[in-house]
Amino acid sequence: MSWRGWFTLILLTAAALSGWALWSQRDKPLAGKANVQPDYVLNDFEVVVLDKTGKESFTLRAPTLTRDPNIKTMDITTPLFLIPPKPGSQGGAWEVRSQRGWVSAEADEVRLRGQVKADSTNAEGKPIKIATEELNVFPDSNKATSAVAVNMVQPGTILSGLGLEADLETKNVILKSNVKARYEAKAR
């Protein structure tokens, strides 16, 4: 075989190996997860979610919501959740905002991520403001938790700590560790 034959054979082998290498490195779905198209998408919407007794559990407003048809969970872009006070409870409704949201298939757990802000009023009508990067809300039980840094501001008091457990109905908020408090005198 001439040098041109050998050279052609080497080039064909190199091309075949390059093609195989590119093919084997292509993007593949994660194990057990195919690229699933949502079974529905909502744009610029408001939805009222009812609890098992038919009363309002929460209202959700957002620019985009998609639902996974296999596991029935929902992903939400920049959600605003309005959680009404339970009858007879003290204080106002909660307004909870974040960059991203996720709702479980049963709508009994909401995970909020990225610049989470929760605002309400206490029994005296004074504002309560909570800021964190992660908040898990359980609407049926009116509870919320976080495992990351949390700041809570009430008139005259700024609290910061790591982790949170909150009863949204009674407005009882517990910061779990590394708690620091700063008190500010009232303006006259």
Structure characteristics:
single chain; 188 residues; lipopolysaccharide transport protein A fold; transmembrane
What does the model show?
- The chain is mainly β and 188 residues long.
- It has a single domain, classed as Lipopolysaccharide (LPS) transport protein A like domain (lipopolysaccharide transport protein A fold).
- Helix content is 12%, strand content 52%.
- Strands 2-3-6-7-5-4 form a six-stranded antiparallel β-barrel.
- The model has no long low-confidence stretch (mean pLDDT 84).
What is shown here, in short?
This protein is mainly β. The chain has one helix spanning 3-24; strands spanning 40-50, 56-67, 74-77, 80-83, 94-97, 100-103, 110-121, 127-138, 143-154, 157-167, 172-183.
- What top-tier CATH class fits best? Mainly Beta
| CATH superfamily descriptor | Lipopolysaccharide (LPS) transport protein A like domain
- Return the structural class: mainly beta
The share of residues in helices is 10-25%
> What's the overall geometry?
elongated
Strand content: over 45%
Subcellular location: Cell inner membrane
Keywords: Cell inner membrane, Cell membrane, Membrane, Transmembrane, Transmembrane helix
Subunit structure: Component of the lipopolysaccharide transport and assembly complex. Interacts with LptA and the LptBFG transporter complex.
Main location: membrane
